[in-house]
Amino acid sequence: MSEALALVSNNLPIPSALGSLDAYISAVHRVPMLTQDEEQDLAERLRYENDLAAAKRLVLSHLRFVVHVARGYQGYGLPLGDLVQEGNIGLMKAVKRFDPTLGVRLVSFAVHWIRAEMHEFILRNWRIVKVATTKAQRKLFFNLRKSKKRLGWMNHEEVQSVAKELGVPVATVLEMESRLAGRDVGFDAPQDSDEDTPPAPVAYLVDHRADPYESLANQDQEDNQLEVLTEGLARLDARSRDIIARRWLKDGEKATLQELADEYGVSAERIRQIEANAMKKIRALFVA
């Protein structure tokens, strides 16, 4: 399937090929959207028959959604076209991993992959020196950017408010703010430097984490965990799967126990029990 999607990616419309970003956006909005039945049929053809044409239709029909997500990240000062292309990579990864038996729409599954690629791109390019390297720091980076009401350093009250809102220590907020406000330093020495110029970071910085084996192992672990989660969801009944998806996997505001209880005609406590039992079954697969 990866070879098929590679062929699809080579045939996707890109802004440079169409002459401008506006032309690209106009083109992808003219691609017809798929009905749920059409999407299901295409996903099954891709998964079970490795159908290249089905993969292409799935990707093309969701390119407009990538543009929509990319617009939400324009505040970081990066070109929209670059964000869109990174998001397209995430979309293709999602199409490759999409399981049509789960009973969810592709867009709900793909949004996490699209945003993940955009987040990586932002963190790689927003500063020459990375401001966030761990998962927790990345979460704080994006939340702090949203929470800051003005340019410049935050006062004591603002720091306290952000720390309370994000549930992190004040020291953590201050550390991340200092990273955000830090000035970029050229990695290479300037061309006109002389012997009296201090050495550039390229001369003395060592990346002790540059271990290809470890990177491959981490990626393999993430892929394995995703497969286990997918398998766990597939083993649940339709109601349990829907409750888990809307309580834990849905992007944005999650459904409450009472909302689901009203929809299924049971008590909120019954929904909590179903959720707990489903989570127990899924966790059992991770420790097996």
What is the CATH topology descriptor of the largest domain? Four Helix Bundle (Hemerythrin (Met), subunit A)
Structural class: mainly alpha
What's the helical proportion of residues? 55-70%
Backbone shape = globular
- The CATH architecture of the largest domain would be Up-down Bundle
Report the major sheet: none
Radius of gyration: 23 Å
Alpha-carbon distance between the two ends? 28 Å
Q: Give the rounded overall mean pLDDT.
A: 75
The stretches of 5 or more residues where confidence is low (pLDDT under 50) are 1-5, 128-133
Q: Note the total helix count.
A: 15
Q: In percent, how much strand structure appears in the residues?
A: under 5%
Count the domains: 3
SSE string, helices as H and strands as E: HHHHHHHHHHHHHHH
Report the CATH C-level class of the largest domain.
Answer: Mainly Alpha
Subunit structure: Interacts with the RNA polymerase core enzyme.
Organism: Tahibacter amnicola
InterPro entries: RNA_pol_sigma-70_dom, RNA_pol_sigma70, RNA_pol_sigma70_r1_2, RNA_pol_sigma70_r2, RNA_pol_sigma70_r4, RNA_pol_sigma_r2, RNA_pol_sigma_r3/r4-like, RNA_pol_sigma_RpoH_proteobac
Protein name: RNA polymerase sigma factor RpoH
What is shown here, in short?
Sigma factors are initiation factors that promote the attachment of RNA polymerase to specific initiation sites and are then released. This sigma factor is involved in regulation of expression of heat shock genes. The chain has 288 residues and is mainly α.
Would you give an account of this structure?
The chain contains 15 helices and no strands. It is 67% helix and 0% strand. It has 288 residues and is mainly α. The N terminus is likely disordered. The chain is globular and about 50 Å long. The two termini are 28 Å apart. The relative contact order is 0.07. It has 3 domains: 124 residues, Four Helix Bundle (Hemerythrin (Met), subunit A) (Up-down Bundle); 40 residues, no CATH class; 68 residues, Winged helix-like DNA-binding domain superfamily/Winged helix DNA-binding domain (Arc Repressor Mutant, subunit A, Orthogonal Bundle), CATH 1.10.10.10. Sigma factors are initiation factors that promote the attachment of RNA polymerase to specific initiation sites and are then released. This sigma factor is involved in regulation of expression of heat shock genes. Keywords: Cytoplasm, DNA-binding, Sigma factor, Stress response, Transcription, Transcription regulation. This is RNA polymerase sigma factor RpoH. It is found in: Cytoplasm. Its main location: cytoplasm.
